[in-house]
Amino acid sequence: MSAKKERKNSKTAINILAYLVLIAGGVAFLYPFVWMISASLKSLEEIAVSGMNLWPGEWRWDNYVKALTSFPFGRYLINTLLTTIFPIIGTVLSCSLVGYAFARFKVKGSGILFLLVLSTMLLPGEVTMIPQFILFKNLGMLDSLYPLIVPAFFGSPFYIFLFRQFYSRLPVGLEEAAIIDGCGYFKIWRVIFLPLSKPALIGVGVMVFMGSWNNFMGPLIYINSDKWKTLTLGLAGFQGTFATSTNLLMAAAVVITLPCIILFFAAQKAFMEGLTFSGSKEN
Fold first, then answer.
1. Per-residue pLDDT at 279
2. Is residue 4 over pLDDT 80?
3. Cα angle at 216 between 215 and 222, to 5 degrees?
């Protein structure tokens, strides 16, 4: 009985230690964001003298108004939404269709082809950056949103892998029953497999949203005119213009960062479910 009690106490101590480590790590990662929100609500004088104090002495909500009216926020927001929503649609459709083909079409050479697709993940972005730039230049798509949207409709090896793993776990009987009813493979994917892959769709959608919304290198390379700039480019220009206005810079950064945080927490359960199911071992 004493040994059982000792094991229980030891397990409790380990759990307490784990929670303390997690709390310490959470505070370390959360503090910069909390400080950013706090600084966005302070005056420059208060930021200079407040030190580690996070509670504003005077709440300056007008900092957000000044920050968002100091550059074309509405135009940049529309461009950012276009370069985020369309890549999500393109990635989900193309990668789910290709993943379905790799998961269900057991033809000769499909395994080798799948390995070739995955091998492209070994290529760093710096290697393909220049050829891709030359391609879009020859197509006359520079200084537009097309280079930030079109590649998503041609798939991504990592997301193809996730969908392939997800579809491999679905029962074969669903596909067989649909074939007996006269459905073709494309209709089976569209009517049966695509609705069942909601967790994977949400997981991929969230990851594409994070990457597209925060994309800075792509717009920096392809966009020159102010008309097509995104929020990340706008924030960089804002930083150059208002480098000394820390409170306004933090206010703009909070507004741009907030959608990613809200989306992640709203879709966290489905996001983790999709990644866990896609990454689990195939039967």
1. 47
2. no
3. 105
Say how far apart CA 83 and CA 139 lie, in whole Å.
Answer: 19
Query: Which segments of the chain does DSSP mark as H helices, in order?
Result: 2-40, 44-50, 62-68, 73-104, 110-119, 125-138, 146-149, 157-168, 172-180, 185-188, 194-196, 198-213, 217-222, 231-241, 246-266, 268-279
Alpha-carbon gap, residue 59 to 271, rounded angstroms: 36
Distances (CA, A) of 233 to 79, 195, 217, 223: 11, 36, 9, 9
CA 111 to chain centre: 28
Task: DSSP for 203-244, please give it.
Answer: HHHHHHHHHHHT--HHHHHH--SGGG--HHHHHHHHHHHSTT
- The residue ranking higher by pLDDT, 120 or 51, is 120
Region of residue 109 (left: phi > 0; alpha: psi -120 to 50; beta: else): left
CA distance 82 to 106: 37
pLDDT digits (tens, 9 = 90+) for 5-38: 667 777 888 888 889 999 998 888 888 888 889 8
What pTM was estimated for this model as a whole?
A: 0.85
Torsions phi, psi for 51 (to 5 deg): 65, -125
Give the count of beta carbons closer than 10 Å to the beta carbon of residue 200. 27
| Confidence grade of residue 144 (pLDDT, cut at 50, 70, 90) | very high
236-262 exposure pattern, b = at least 16 Cβ within 10 A, e = fewer: eebeeebeebbbbbbbbbbbbbebeee
* 73-104 helix and 198-213 helix, angle to the nearest 10 degrees: 140
